Amino acid sequence: MTIHQTKRNTLILIIIVLALSWIVTYLSLAYQLKNSIDEQFQRMSASTATLFRLNLEHDRKTLDFELDRVVKAKNLPEAIANHDYEQIKSIVSPYYQQIKVTQSAVKILTFRSTEGVTLFRAHKPEFFGDTLNKKRKLIVDTNRLQRSFTGFEVGKLEMTYRVTKPIFYRNKYVGNVEIGMTPTDFIKNLSSIFKIDIGIAIDESLSSIMLSREMTPIGDKYLLIDANDNLKMHFSNQHDENSELYKVNMSIALENHISQKLGFLVVGYDISGIVKKDRAFMYRLFFIVGFMMFVLAFVLQQGFGRVLKCFTKQVYTDHLTGLKNLHALNDLLSSKQTHLLILSNIKEFSLINELYGVEIGDKILIQVAELFESFAKEHDCIAYRVSSDEFVLLKQEDIFDGDEYIGFINKLYSDINNLKILVDGVDELISVELYSGLAFNNLHPLEDAQMALKKAKSQLLPYLMYSQQVDTKQYSHIVMQAKRKIKYALENKNVIPFFQQITDADGKTIKYEALVRIVEYDNGKQTIMTPDMFLDISIKSGLYIKISQEMLEQSLAFFLEREEKVSVNFLPSDFFNSSIMATFMDCVKEFDSPERIVVEITEQDGVEDFDRLTAVVDKLRKLGVLIAIDDFGSGYANYAHILKIRPDYLKIDGSLVQNILTDLESQILVKSIVSFAQELNITTVAEYVENEDIFELLKEYGVDEYQGYYFGRPADLING
Fold first, then answer.
1. Which helix (H) or strand (E) holds 465?
2. Are strands 339-346 and 222-225 parallel, antiparallel or unpaired?
């Protein structure tokens, strides 16, 4: 074989290898492009869902606030009770006009009687008196349970978001008010942030409710309403050739007041801009790679390493500052490792550019970048410049320590504050400040940090943490679920007192103990949460005070006009909480005979300042209320404390009563407690009386009052 033939064969081999490599590169880049587009779509969908929920919650609170204002209007409850149309109209109309000024999306404000008869429509005052609303589950439940509800509802013309509130006159339920708005307001906000189309899909079974609306079928079960031509075209299969440029998310459920899904939000994304940008980047990268392949063919042995290094630097380096760029950051984040990410933005950098010019602005960016690079090396991080005036510090972390990150971010801010920039041509030293958003996770930390940064700016905070340490243990999951349930219960008036009767020796009910419960509704099913499922978590999460106030207000209001006594529970620490005590004092003032209120001091880990507790108890006794010591025979409630407090009641510890039939020590202790109480003229109460044998034995010992399943379980007396 001649030299010429050898060269020719080698050239052919090189061309074949290059062609195959080019094809493989193109297919790989096309695959990566598709994955990148899908990932960006998923991130946009998640962000849309988050913003939708935030806006929905904001509107719910706003509507609830507006209803409170209307319901509290002078003479309105009396007018509702009297079915006085003209009086209702004169009171409500000014309020409705004010609401329309600030909440243009509100289209419904209706007052109804207890029978479901429409008394007044602020939005259509000429129509009144119909009883069609008797059939509506939302109104039926509001009348039946006499409490507020919120949720979406399909009407004759559109789907609306409704909030109801009961109306009471002289402590008697006389009717309800309902306010409604179209989803347009919070949907419009989404449309202003993303380039999207939005419609609403309803369950096909609800279509008969709506009158002459244009509807587009979505699958076998749902119908599309309130949608523009893009969405209609997509579901009419006329979008096939451009399907990759238009994607639809249908994951945002629209639920009624009992958590039943009526439909969902249909969000269409025009991602043509993203696709165009990613394709342009792919083609540029593809041709660069192709060019480099040809270069590598000639310098394969000597220049391969040098050329690859140069290429990598060009793609992953910010040319102004020398820091790694956004492409490098995204590549590292794709590893799905857990990172602490700090996204920092220079405050009012655009003003610096306007005042000093872009050239001076670039010099400032270079010096800020040098500080970030130095800080990153000192703290084992990687520094990036991801946009004009945004920098990122990234640190791989498996466990996140909140206290440590505070010191970490404060050190960064201290270094920035000490940075005085001297630029040629500028007579003064220039200083800069930062806003920062922090995130810690392995999924999308950059997007989370961007949201935290935006919120920090809006609240004028130097920095804000988006998420807490990720805890995969089951207990943490239970705690987070419980916190959400507690918050939801407080916001929706689902913290409810259950009452258990207390009898005398003849079995006559003379008193009730108020016991806290949380009522949950899931798809129309009611479940009851007992204190052991939420009380400890509520104390640690700062929700306990609100729960206590709800219990006091509801329990004492219910017994205001009854003859029996009512017993309410206090932890020792409650007596030192000004909010709880203020609520209690306000409730006591409503009672003509405060001696019908019994304050039970329940068990806690201990009382650090017993003298202070005694002083508070003395003040309560002066108000006329009675004092009870719960769980006597265990914990802090010892005989010395009883002698000092001198309570009206001693509630014998339930563990002694449960075992009294078989345990000799329990019998001795109970007899001792009864004898001790009789000497001091203190009434004894036995808890956990679960059968007749225990009841008869305790009567022999001289116990005064009895409580337990033998006489009745705790029940919701307020709502029946």
1. strand 463-465
2. unpaired
pLDDT averaged over every residue in the chain: 82
Domain with residues 317-470, CATH architecture: 2-Layer Sandwich (3.30)
Tokens, residue 166: 């009961």
CA 172, 145, 59, 210 torsion-angle sign: negative
User: Is the per-residue pLDDT at 523 higher than 90?
Assistant: no
Average pLDDT over residues 642-656: 90
d(C-alpha 371, C-alpha 231), whole Å: 49
Question: What residue spans define the domains of the chain?
Answer: 59-270, 317-470, 475-706
35 is written with which tokens? 């994955």
The torsion defined by the Cα of 233, 239, 243 and 249, in degrees rounded to 10, comes to: 10
Distance CA 32, CA 321 (A): 28
Residue with the larger pLDDT of the pair 49 and 634: 49
| Mean per-residue pLDDT, 435-454 | 83
Show Cβ contacts of residue 109 under 8 Å, excluding neighbours closer than 6 positions: 70, 92, 96, 99, 121, 122, 123, 177, 178, 179, 180
CA dihedral 452, 455, 459, 465 (to 10 degrees): -20
Taking residue 587's Cβ as centre, other Cβ atoms within 10 Å add up to: 21
β-sheet bridge partners, residue 518: 495, 529
Other C-beta atoms lying within 10 Å of the C-beta of residue 555:
26
3-state helix/strand/coil string of 384-436: EEEECCEEEEEEECCCCCHHHHHHHHHHHHHHHHCCCECCCCCCCCECCCEEE
C-alpha neighbours within 13 Å on the C-beta side of residue 561: 5
| Cα gap 630→634, rounded to integer Å | 9
The Cα 490–Cα 483 span in angstroms is 11
Residue that wins the pLDDT comparison between 442 and 67: 67
CB-count burial class (<10 Å; 0-12, 13-18, 19+) for 472:
exposed
* Strand spans (E) along 155-238: 159-169, 172-181, 196-203, 216-218, 222-225
User: Is 475-706 the same fold as 59-270?
Assistant: no
- Statement: the pTM of the whole predicted model exceeds 0.70: no
Q: Kindly report the CATH number that applies to the domain delimited by 475-706.
A: 3.20.20.450
How far from the centroid of its chain's Cα atoms is residue 153's Cα? 22
The mean pLDDT of 98-125, rounded to a whole number, is 86
Instruction: Determine the pLDDT at residue 715.
Output: 93
Taking each helix axis from N to C end, the angle separating 326-333 and 300-316, rounded to the nearest 10 degrees, works out to: 100
Residue whose structure tokens are 């419960």: 517
pLDDT of residue 634: 64
CATH architecture group of domain 59-270:
2-Layer Sandwich (3.30)
Percent of the chain with pLDDT over 70: 85
Q: What span, in angstroms and rounded, lies between the C-alpha atoms of 96 and 526?
A: 35
Is residue 16 scored above 50 in pLDDT?
A: yes
3-class DSSP assignment, residue 247: strand
Q: Are 166 and 50 in contact (CB under 8 A)?
A: no
SS3 221: coil
The strand pair at 222-225 and 196-203 is best described as antiparallel
What is the distance in angstroms between the CA of the first residue and the CA of the last residue of the chain? 103
pLDDT greater at residue 464 or residue 172? 172
Consecutive H or E run containing 552: helix 544-558
Q: What is the pLDDT of residue 402?
A: 64
pLDDT band of 597, cuts 50, 70, 90: very high
